[in-house]
Amino acid sequence: MTWTNMTQTAAGQVAGFVDFDWGQQVCHRAGLCQSMNIPDTAIFATMYKHAGDWDLAWDPDIHFVRSNDLFKTISKTIQCGNQFETIGREVRSRESHRKMVANQAA
Question: How many angstroms separate the Cα of 56 from the Cα of each of 5, 53, 61, 101?
Fold first, then answer.
């Protein structure tokens, strides 16, 4: 795979990215990505659509998305998605991750 400017590839669908992870990171067993239809080019990301949208620490204009083709298209969008992130091999809400860490520390 070669370097790709994904905001340019997105053709106006994405102004910028807050965070991302390759889709392959959520696959922890051989063949799992294939069975879940997650290609090598899949990306999970938190992004904002318009320049200037991201202006708060917790911003409802940040969306959690999945793209299978380096953002030529966006296959899934969860509005107010900055509450989600990929952690290890899972997609979790930030709140569930905070609770898990707090329980492990107790």
Answer: 25, 9, 9, 25
